Predict the structure.
Amino acid sequence: MKPCYLLFLCSLVLSCAQAQKPNNIATQWQLPDQEWKMRLSPEEYAVLRKKGTERAFTGQYWNKKDPGLYRCRACNTPLFSSETKYESGSGWPSFWQPLHDSTISISQDLSLGMLRDEVLCAQCGGHLGHVFPDGPRPTGLRYCLNSVSLSFEPKREN
C-alpha cells in the first residue's frame, strides 16, 4: 500500500511542477511538419523543429556586438535586444532577459539525461535554446540560444 501512495505523491509533485511552466504557444503557427520543411533550411529545421543544437562557437551571432533586435527565424517574432546580450564564454549567443516575457515560453527538457529549461518561441513553438540560472545581474539568467534559430535586424540610425 505504501509504494502506491509514494508513487501517487511523486506523480502529483511532478504534475504541479510542470503546471508552473505553462506552454503558451500560439495556435496560428501550428503548421504541419511538411510546411516547416519547406519554409526552413535543413539546419534551421533540425534546430527549430527537432530541438537540435549547433556546435559552440560556430553560429553567426555568438560574438556579434552590433546594436539591434534578434527575431525568431521561423516566424519573425521579436525576441531579444542586443542591449541584453553579453559574452558568456559559452560559444552561443547569450542574453540576460527577453524583450518581453510573453515572447518566449519555457518548457522542461529531460533530454541528454538531465533536467534543463528549454526556451521556445511563444509564437511558433520553435526551439531557441535553454535558460540557465548563472547569468549576470539583474536577472541572474543566461538565455543560451542557437544562432540558427535567430535572425538579426540592425538598429536603424536616426
About this structure: The longest strand covers residues 104-109. The chain has one domain: 24-154. DSSP finds three helices and nine strands in the chain.
